[in-house]
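Supplementary Methods. Inverse-folding protocol.

Structures were first reduced to a discrete structure-token string of length 170. This string, shown here, constituted the complete conditioning input.
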């Protein structure tokens, strides 16, 4: 998997842990095609609020937003695309430089993630990686609108986090 980080604002420790989390997520979810590409950026509170307002009609700050390129917008139930992730299906979504399927963008508001880490009693590292994993799962079609879907998504998130040994707490 190719992960394009906005390196101006990303700490190398975050890059390493998020990369490990994504590698494990692909294995855990049994995604055989590793030729996937994702963009991850840190954004300010104002930027994430603006993105949230423009794309979700929610005029508020949030911790993470995902912008999937392979999913139909405005679905109200999960449409997991793991089985469809092959280059022949998504020919028009290949980055010609990497020959990887571009699955989308994840925007993370570092200030909100740090605030949540403090509120939930987690380390900043754990909260940051958790938000990145959360964003990835949204790009793959997982969602948490319905209770059953939320249980599935949370279970996957916790499995990935447990594998990384990023325990809760400071």
């Amino acid at each position: 998997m190719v992960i394009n980080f906005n390196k101006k604002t990303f700490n190398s420790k975050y890059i390493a842990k998020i990369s490990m989390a994504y590698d494990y997520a692909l294995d855990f979810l049994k995604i055989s095609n590793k030729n996937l590409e994702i963009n991850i950026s840190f954004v300010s509170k104002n930027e994430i609020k603006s993105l949230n307002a423009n794309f979700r009609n929610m005029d508020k700050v949030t911790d993470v937003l995902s912008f999937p390129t392979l999913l139909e917008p405005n679905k109200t139930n999960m449409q997991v695309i793991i089985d469809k992730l092959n280059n022949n299906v998504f020919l028009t979504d290949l980055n010609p430089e990497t020959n990887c399927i571009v699955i989308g963008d994840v925007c993370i508001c570092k200030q909100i993630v740090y605030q949540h880490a403090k509120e939930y009693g987690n380390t900043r590292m754990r909260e940051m990686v958790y938000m990145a994993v959360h964003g990835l799962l949204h790009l793959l079609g997982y969602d948490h609108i319905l209770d059953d879907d939320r249980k599935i998504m949370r279970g996957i998130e916790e499995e990935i986090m447990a594998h990384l040994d990023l325990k809760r707490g400071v």
